[in-house]
Design brief:
Blueprint (H helix, E strand, L loop, with lengths): L10 E7 L3 E2 L9 H14 L10 E5 L10 H8 L8 E4 L5 H15 L4 E9 L5 E2 L2 H12 L3 H9 L9 E2 H5 L1 E2 L4 E2 H11 L4 H20 L9 E2 L5 E2 L11 H5 L21 E10 L1 H7 L5 E10 L8 H13 L8 E4 L4 H11 L2 H6 L21 H4 L6 H15 L4 E8 L3 E9 L3
Parallel strand pairs: 3-4, 3-5, 14-15
Antiparallel strand pairs: 1-12, 1-13, 2-12, 5-12, 6-7, 8-9, 10-11, 13-16, 15-16
Helix pairs in contact: 1-2, 3-15, 4-5
């Protein structure tokens, strides 16, 4: 149901994010809590209220580190929100950052909160590497051994198989119910909608070129410069490949369906570290603190679908919002659909123009219509920016508001597919000045 039918208006006041930093094979310079603090500290420092005046802090995060249990609380305390400000963490896979915003919006709409810091963070390069179950059992027996002889006997039982690690990132990107990696589900969509390798690569190339142009033209002013402990600074999304071309992309081999697949590292989202934070407020808080308003959350939707088709989540989540408001795609000025895979975004567009899919899966009498590619992810997306899973949902909402303001437009839709077979979407309107 639309937010305005549930209660009070919910306004987005301001937002910031860190650069999205591509994982380079080993832990990056920032833990997740560090990234969330850097994104939020800059944001809060320019407000007319103190951090302690927030009603709550809500963050999305999928893989917090061992010292980041309830990472939202860790971040809130480091930001100086004081002990009385509650904080909590949400997890909805790829849409965790959007879930945090949605939770904040519901609390403001219902009157439970007036002023909330919400967003998402992920340091994917710090994803855990775990002991396998055999090793855990061996360690348990070792610690239970009391005598030196018993301990030596346990060491005699240690085998190479005990040392095989469980790589959390790989396991986390595999659906345990259907036994498919996210990349394999993307291959399924490519075959279902006859999306060619060339189409995927063209889309990926466009994403990189758009992001490069956005950086050059100053269209990413939501990025805050951050510094590591050695004095190095980071001021841009470093996964962008400015010279990306079709010849280079064509040379990349398939990753998920060797040797015949079409989904490659070049037309997939990058493994990345990053954070995004937004301030949400009620009308009462806007007036009390004399806050500027970027936009208003109009509606949101969460949908479920077959996990093996998870990339179609945006098609399922956005459709009910359009129906409720009696909109067609032409009524949406700009779209931010997270680029988990090029074929996944293309499949969502194709599904809305497929009469059988709309009838059988989306339960509409007619096709929904076409999303204009010139108004979709105009400054690039997950393929060029990267997709730090806990942060992307917050980033796309924030950047959508920036795009609307830059183009003097009114209405935008942000959406993501979600591992496990779900989709999330949020309808945003920019406040006219």
């Amino acid at each position: 149901m639309p937010h305005q039918e549930k209660g009070r208006d919910v306004f987005i006041i301001d937002g910031s994010r860190t650069p999205f930093l591509k994982a380079k094979g080993k832990p990056g310079p920032f833990h997740a809590a560090d990234l969330a603090v850097y994104a939020s500290r800059a944001l809060l420092s320019r407000q007319t209220f103190e951090p302690s005046e927030l009603d709550e802090v809500i963050l999305g995060c999928v893989m917090p580190g061992p010292d980041e249990a309830n990472i939202a609380r860790v971040v809130a305390l480091r930001l100086g929100c004081k002990k009385h400000v509650p904080a909590w963490t949400v997890q909805r896979n790829c849409a965790s950052g959007m879930q945090a915003i949605d939770c904040a919006a519901h609390n403001i709409a219902s009157g439970r909160s007036e002023l909330v810091l919400a967003g998402g963070v992920e340091s994917m390069s710090h994803a855990p590497i775990l002991y396998n179950e055999q090793m855990v059992n061996w360690l348990s027996d070792l610690f239970a051994a009391r005598s030196l002889g018993a301990r030596l006997k346990m060491f005699s039982k240690l085998r190479p198989k005990h040392l095989k690690p469980v790589i959390g990132l790989i396991r986390g990107l595999t659906d345990p119910v259907v036994g498919l990696s996210m990349g394999q589900t993307a291959e399924i969509l490519a075959h279902r909608f006859n999306i060619s390798r060339e189409e995927m690569d063209q889309y990926a190339m466009r994403s990189h070129h758009r992001l490069a142009s956005a950086h050059d033209d100053g269209h990413l002013d939501e990025i805050e410069v951050i510094y590591d402990t050695t004095g190095h600074y980071y001021d841009h999304d470093d996964g962008v490949r400015r010279n990306s071309d079709m010849d280079g992309l064509a040379k990349l081999r398939p990753v998920f369906d060797k040797p015949f697949g079409m989904v490659t590292a070049g037309n997939s989202a990058q493994i990345t570290d990053g954070a995004a934070a937004l301030i949400l407020a009620s009308e009462k808080a806007v007036e009390k603190y004399n806050l500027p308003v970027m936009g208003r959350i109009i509606d949101s939707e969460w949908a479920g679908l077959d996990p093996s088709q998870m990339g179609l989540g945006p098609a399922h989540a956005m459709a009910p919002i359009l129906k409720r408001h009696k909109f067609t795609p032409d009524d949406i000025d700009y779209w931010e659909v997270n680029e988990a895979f090029a074929t996944q975004v293309l499949a969502c567009r194709a599904a809305w123009m497929d009469s059988e899919y709309c009838r059988e899966e989306l339960h509409t009498d007619t096709t929904i219509g076409e999303i204009d590619i010139s108004r979709l992810n105009v400054d690039g997306g997950g393929i060029s920016l990267g997709h730090p899973v806990g942060a992307s949902g917050a980033r796309i909402v924030l950047h959508l508001l920036k795009v609307l303001a830059r183009n003097n437009a009114t209405r935008g839709m942000a959406s993501l597919c979600i591992g496990g077979g779900q989709g999330g979407a949020m309808l945003i309107e920019r406040e006219s000045t």
